[in-house]
Amino acid sequence: TILIVDFGSQVTQLIARRVREAGVYSEIAPFTMAEEAFKRMKPAGIILSGSPAGVPEDGSPRAPQMLFEAGVPILGICYGQQVMSHQLGGEVRPGHETGEGGEFGRAFLTVTKRCALFDGLWEEGERHQVWMSHGDKVTKFAPGFEIVAISDGAPFAVIADEERRFYGTQFHPEVVHTPDGGKLIANFVRHVCGCAGDWTMAQFRETKIAEIREQVGDAKVICGLSGGVDSAVAAVLIHEAIGDQLTCVFVDHGLMRMGEADQVVSLFRGHYNIPLVHVDATTLFMKGLEGVTDPEAKRKFIGKTFIDVFEDEANKIGGADFLAQGTLYPDVIESVSFTGGPSVTIKSHHNVGGLPERMNMDLVEPLRELFKDEVRELGRELGLPDIFVGRHPFPGPGLAIRIPGAVDRDKADILRKADAIYLEEIRNAGLYDAIWQAFAVLLPVKTVGVMGDYRTYDYVCALRAVTSTDGMTADVYPFDGKFLAQCATRIVNEVKGINRVVYDYTSKPPGTIEWE
Ligand code: XMP
What we know:
ATP binds at residues 226-232. By secondary structure, the chain is of the alpha/beta class.
């Protein structure tokens, strides 16, 4: 086990993720609780995270001194390196005092000496790309340490005390912009700390089940299903932990993809035998969306109505103390602003934001530390069918935001058919898993066409497909022309109401993935 001491860096969870990828279990403890966590966990190693604070600042966080005397290997990252240097008798000075600026972004370091952290990876004299983000720096290192790598802006890019097995990196090995970072962390947890590296998602499942049982006791839990992967995985996991103390509520807004509402129902009732309330609220949603053309107004209406319907059902069920949600780590980061200023709302994504406050219930969020691909892995581990687990992300407001302008039942039906044909073609071509998201959009534009001897005057359908790792940025998927022509032909021939198909070539930024 590895103890990660959190000093408040935005990317602490990425450290945990890299440790998981190395097959080792870790727990994150805020620096204020690190001593207690250490005594409870008896970890084989400790990683000290970065921080928005600076070591020279008054009141900035410190690690419990006992951690340095416990005889356990330590890796200090960025602030972690500085705080370790400072607490062990070195000196850290603000960038502005040393007359040199900090380093932010991509940097290169040169390895000056071998050390256990670099085993089988980096050799003396080599240069490697890393990601730096620091203003302050270590100006005098603590007794026992030596320099093993330097960079232009940081003479102490990596320091090591091989005897005590203490290491410090000025850069961030946990981010993807440090290409070898995952391997360095794996070296630390496996070679230096001697962890076996055999931890798996199966063990995550066991640990979480125990935690859920402890948190919930014999209370009742309700869980809102969206039809997506996250809420489904959370529900199945919680059901495994507490059985029929869990009730799921699936609010069906009638804006799902083809066949998906039925799939959710049969998966939960048929496959897992999990108590499920299926509320078909299509009429309510469609009526409320009548004449609503503004994208934000659509999102707000759908979010609010979802909560209203869910709350009604929860009251009918009665007596639940906990609300379960499939919150993932990226949702957690996005909901906290580290920028200091108000961030601009591009789209109000939070589908059911406000639900927990309104329901006044405690939350059960077993996926809070996972990333999307890890949730998929956990879903497979729990036996969810591949077609469900591997599904492209789908926005909470559903097809409503893929129909620019006013939404109605007919348009939703037309779009659903076109979308299903497009996805079927993508699956048949074996491209589904290479694409982050692919979908059709129904434009509120009619154009003239000719079919047989007749003039047609119908809607335009736009196709979109992007690659991405997190939805924050995206590239257009470069289909070949033949493939797109095949999709266009099938859609125009098979879907009444569409007579023209176009392909969206816009990356994100400047476009967004969804059209609204
Ligand atoms: P955009 O369109 O902002 O989308 O580039 C980025 C990712 O977020 C999804 N998305 C949403 N997901 N509720 C959601 O749960 C929403 O309101 C919402 N809007 C966009 C989008 O599908 C893409 O994966």
